[in-house]
Design goal:
Layout: H1 4-7, H2 18-26, H3 30-38, H4 41-47, H5 54-59, H6 67-70, E1 72-77, E2 81-86, E3 96-97, E4 104-107, E5 110-112, E6 119-120, E7 133-135, E8 142-143, E9 156-158, E10 165-166, E11 179-181, E12 188-189, E13 202-204, E14 211-212, E15 226-228, E16 235-236, E17 249-251, E18 258-259, E19 272-274, E20 281-282, E21 295-297, E22 304-305, E23 318-320, E24 327-328, E25 350-351, E26 364-367, E27 373-374, E28 387-390, E29 396-397, E30 413-414, H7 429-439
Parallel strand pairs: 3-6, 5-7, 6-8, 7-9, 9-11, 10-12, 12-14, 13-15, 16-18, 17-19, 18-20, 20-22, 21-23, 24-25, 25-27, 26-28, 27-29, 28-30
Antiparallel strand pairs: 1-2, 4-5
Length: about 450
């Protein structure tokens, strides 16, 4: 494949024989070809004939300047707006749909893609408010990004088993879309493919799907109550199910090793999560503001829990931390106002800033000998805290770690002998002076 570099210094392209020029363009990558031909009518004319094969057309169907290769030329229609017309030279053009008026109207909001069509171009039906159901034949093998985005009255679609990729933003903003059948032929679902499909209630992702797009695949599907995930997924990508406010439970399959950042953020109905033994990492903010989540048991395979992972899970009463983690990240449990107890495993070496701030129901805490660092405000405003035990005499505890904990007294705080306050205000002023007299 020829790239931009190969064309450097080729200022006299038009001096080449047409046959040579066509051969060059057959081997160009899409971006370079579109750039070079964009402003040159002569080059466009030279390639606008049968010398550019249907295979070239097929490879270029997703290019924003597809007219370069598929002989489509832009036009402006006073009633329909911008569109394309096909020259008579390319058979491939008959196999591509660009606009809604190329559909067959079956009546009552039902439209059918004609048999033989292989490609539905990107944004082909975007913002169409008439389509309620779309029938797609098995001849279609590619559907471009945003093909159905913001079709706000689309209710039903069956994806044929000839499709292997659900492209990015394909159904974004289809507010009334209630059911989608994803066939076993699909291996990849792109980013934001179903974002803000507010009517979508159930989704089954078949085991053929090995990867989800890098973000917001189902974000904002506020009516989604049931998800069955593919058993071959390795990651739940960032923001994937953010704001799925009706989702009550989910089982993470055994294949998953990572739940990325904010994957389930603000799933405010989520009550239960089944974590697999394969899980190694939970990204920052993964379950922030899951306000009905009551208990969490993490498998011992988890090595990393990111900042704010369970922040503001206001009904969380208990959590079992894995024995493999070395760090409790900043803000991890901040604002978990129902959390009454937590056991910090002996593997933990650091408790970072504000990790348990505003855990107003937390009653007691034991900081094990393994911990060498407790960050700023780690237990700030834990107003029910009535027992603190610190075991490591060399632990570094930073300012305000236990400030505004009114239940703490010199009788229920246990520190190692010779504890070094290092001039920090760790506790409220009066209590700290009393503890200095006892342990300093």
């Amino acid at each position: 494949m020829i790239t931009d570099d190969a064309l450097q210094g080729q200022k006299n392209l038009l001096d080449l024989p047409e046959e040579k020029l066509v051969e060059i363009f057959k081997r160009l990558d899409t971006t370079t070809a579109a750039r070079v031909m964009k402003s040159n009518k002569t080059l466009r004319r030279i390639v606008k004939d049968k010398k550019v094969t249907n295979e070239i057309c097929k490879d270029m169907v997703y290019s924003p300047r597809i007219e370069v290769f598929c002989n489509y030329q832009p036009f402006i229609d006073e009633t329909k707006g911008p569109g394309f017309w096909c020259s008579k030279h390319s058979d491939m053009c008959e196999k591509v749909i660009f606009r809604s008026d190329q559909l067959i109207d079956e009546g009552d909001g039902v439209y059918r893609v004609r048999d033989g069509v292989q490609v539905i171009h990107e944004e082909a039906f975007r913002n169409n408010q008439e389509i309620q159901e779309i029938i797609i034949p098995n001849s279609v093998t590619k559907i471009g990004p945003r093909a159905f985005s913001n079709c706000k009255n689309l209710l039903r679609v069956t994806i044929p088993n000839s499709i292997t990729v659900i492209s990015a933003e394909m159904f974004t903003g289809c507010e009334r879309l209630a059911t989608v059948n994803i066939p076993n032929s699909v291996t990849h679902i792109g980013s934001a493919a179903f974002e803000n499909c507010e009517g979508l209630q159930t989704i089954i992702i078949p085991d053929s799907v090995t990867k989800l797009g890098h973000n917001i695949v189902f974000s904002g599907c506020t009516s989604l109550v049931s998800i069955e995930l593919s058993k071959t997924l390795k990651e739940i990508p960032r923001y994937c199910f953010q704001n799925c406010k009706s989702l009550k439970s989910i089982t993470i399959p055994d294949s998953v090793t990572e739940i990325e950042e904010k994957a389930f953020r603000q799933c405010t109905s989520l009550e239960a999560i089944n974590f697999p033994n394969s899980l190694k990492r939970i990204g920052w903010g993964a379950f922030t503001k899951c306000t009905r989540l009551a208990t969490v048991t993490l498998p011992n395979t988890v090595e990393d829990i990111g900042p704010t992972s369970f922040q503001s899970c206001t009904r969380l009463t208990a959590i079992t931390l894995p024995e493999a983690i070395k760090l409790i990240s900043a803000y991890t449990f901040r604002g978990c106002t129902s959390l009454t107890a937590i056991t910090i495993p002996n593997s933990v070496e650091e408790i970072n800033d504000m990790a348990f701030e505003d855990c107003t129901a937390l009653i007691s805490i034991v900081i094990p000998f393994s911990v060498t660092h407790v960050g700023h405000g780690a237990f700030h405003r834990c107003t029910s805290l009535i027992s603190v035990t610190v075991l490591n005499p060399d632990v570094q505890i930073y300012p305000y770690a236990f400030s505004n904990c009114p239940g703490l007294t010199k009788n229920n705080v246990t520190l190692p002998s010779g504890f070094d306050f290092s001039g920090h205000r760790i506790f409220d002023i009066e209590l700290q002076e009393e503890l200095k007299a006892l342990y300093g």
